[in-house]
Structures are given as structure tokens and as C-alpha cells.
Design brief:
Layout (H helix, E strand, L loop, with lengths): L2 H10 E8 L5 H10 L7 E5 L8 H5 L7 E5 L5 H11 L4 E5 L10 H8 L12 E2 L3 H8 L5 H6 L2 H12 L7 H14 L10 E2 L3 E5 H19 L8
Parallel strand pairs: 1-2, 1-4, 2-3
Antiparallel strand pairs: 4-7, 5-6
Helix pairs in contact: 4-10, 6-9
């Protein structure tokens, strides 16, 4: 690819990085260190920064990039913020990266961007999942489904999740009541495992898909995976 072609691609595709205030500045430092090695051109999507002065330390870390930035309140999920950005940016394509993304390879944007050229795709992803919160909740409640056959001990799985999350409540009456309530609430609309979906840690999408279709896609994803309301990375 020529330098001119690469520049055209960067102008066509906006890289939107979600920066959530509750995460602190460390994830941003890790992301920006990795990003600066490979690409130029960036949109910082600040989530939950009520005072514009609070973003100054982040912008000071990126003087050479001179990134464009915008603010959204810390409500809803990461896709909520992405939909706002999609409505304000005029690029043909958007590549969304969450707060904890780190770039590992040169040419990463071209690889993701090229996936949209195949078969008229509206969105692609760096990773995906077949996981289902519905199946997990039912598994923890004793349902002998696919998760039970694959994962085995419910107690061991809860312990592993607690260790990975650094304190995830995995026992006690409140945990079981919430698990039961979630299963009952989402049972009519969610799809059990395998619930194929893109993960939102890093994904490109066309502006048309982002602006017109993403809200519908998010609704289907929430029903299929049992994603819960509240802010995410």
C-alpha cells in the first residue's frame, strides 16, 4: 500500500477509543503507548468526564497526535457511547476500541478494515464469542445443559470467575437471588449457548451500520447474551 493510499484509508476510517473516567488513566497510558507505535489519527471518546478540564491530562499525553475528542455521559453500555460518536463523525467507517484495548501488531487497522470489504459486511470484530449469560445463570441454578457438560463443577467455575474479577460475589443469598431473577427476566428473549456475537473490545463498522443498524444489533445481542444495563469499558 502506498503512503497516499494509507493516508486515504486513515481519513476514511475513524479510530474511536473509549476513555471511561472510572477506569483511571492507566488503561489509557497502556493503550496510547501501543497505538502510537503503529497508527496516526484518533478520536477520543470521553465517558463520564463532566468537567472538560478533567480531559487535559489525557490530551497532554498525545500532543503529536492532536486527537479529536468528544464527551458522553457515563450512562448505558459501551455501545451507547459508540452510537453517539457514530452520529457525529462523518467518516465512511468507524473502528471502535474499548478502554482496555492494546495494539499488538502493525497493520492491525488494515486487517480489521479489510474484513468489511468481504461480502458486504457491515461490521467485523477482533474477537467474538458464543457465550450466553442465560446458559450460565441456568447452569449455576442447576440446569443440566451444555454448560454443565462442558464446565463441570459450578463451585469451581464461580471460584475462577471470582479470582479473575478480583472480588466477584459468587455466593450468599443475594448472589442466588440475583442469578434467579436474571434468568427469569431474560428467559423469554435470550438465546442459550451457542449465542454467536461480536465482542465490543475492538470492532470496525461502516457508518451506515453504526448509525442505522447498531441499535437494532445491540438489542438482539442483549437478548441473546443477557447483557445487563450499566456502564462498561
Amino acid at each position: 500500500m502506498t503512503a497516499r493510499a494509507a493516508g486515504d484509508k486513515r481519513r476514511r476510517t475513524a479510530v474511536v477509543h473509549l476513555v471511561r473516567r472510572s477506569n483511571g488513566i492507566e488503561p489509557f497510558d497502556a493503550f496510547f503507548t501501543s497505538y502510537g507505535r503503529f497508527e496516526a489519527g484518533l478520536v477520543l471518546l470521553f465517558k463520564g468526564y463532566e468537567d472538560p478540564g478533567h480531559v487535559a491530562p489525557y490530551l497532554e499525553r498525545a500532543p503529536d497526535q492532536a486527537p479529536r475528542w468528544m464527551h458522553v455521559p457515563d450512562t448505558g453500555l459501551d455501545l451507547t457511547a459508540y452510537l453517539v460518536a457514530a452520529g457525529k463523525l462523518g467518516h465512511e467507517r468507524l473502528c471502535f476500541l474499548n478502554s482496555f484495548s492494546e495494539i499488538r501488531a502493525p497493520g492491525w487497522l488494515q486487517l480489521l478494515d479489510s474484513a468489511l470489504a468481504d461480502h458486504g459486511n457491515g461490521a467485523a470484530g477482533a474477537s467474538g464469542s458464543w457465550a450466553s449469560h442465560l446458559s450460565y445463570d441456568l447452569f449455576q441454578l442447576g440446569w443440566r445443559g451444555r454448560y454443565a457438560r462442558m464446565l463441570g463443577s459450578r463451585r469451581a467455575v464461580r471460584g475462577s470467575l471470582q479470582e479473575l474479577s478480583g472480588g466477584y460475589a459468587s455466593s450468599g443469598g443475594r448472589y442466588w437471588l440475583l442469578t434467579l431473577a436474571n434468568a427469569v427476566r431474560y428467559l423469554p428473549t435470550m438465546v442459550p449457548f451457542p449465542a454467536a456475537h461480536l465482542r465490543t473490545n475492538a470492532f470496525p463498522a461502516t457508518a451506515r451500520c453504526s448509525g442505522r443498524c447498531a441499535s437494532d444489533a445491540w438489542g438482539r445481542s442483549a437478548r441473546r447474551t443477557g447483557s445487563k444495563a450499566g456502564g462498561t469499558a
